[in-house]
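Okay, can you check this protein?
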Amino acid sequence: FAVDEIEFWRIIGLLNWKRTGDDGAVLKPAVKALAKKSPEEIAGFEEILSQKLFALDTKAHATQMGEDAYVDDKHPFSVDAFLYARCCVVANGEEYYESVLVDPGDFPEDVEFEALLELASSAYEARTGTAPDFFETWVSYETFSNKVGWAGQ
């Protein structure tokens, strides 16, 4: 039981951007599709999401996020805003994600899509009737988790 990259991006592609402004409505088609999967497959989706967000957790990307961009350790920086901006990159699909991953200059400014973090747990709850305690993933998507991405530069 696994959700592979192709299935991951197919589900991301179901986000309904015509409903922008109502995050639940944007997520709904993706939640519905993911909820048809087994709990193990839903956890697999969350694993891939964590890896994508982790890969974008770099100083090079954080310095490009617009008004709240990372400057240095002496300036205020919202770790949550950076996480939610990374969610926006993933939510905009594989092609955009890949371009931003290789070129931090393509990172979007002053946008966020925090709701993406709810997709797997909403699907799990729809599938099983209970909310997951948490998903155990190999990497953390929390800001500053990617030690290599924040080293040097």
User: Anything to note?
Assistant: The chain has a mean pLDDT of 94. Residues 39-55 form the longest helix (17 residues). The chain is about 50% helix and 0% strand. The two ends are 39 Å apart (CA to CA).
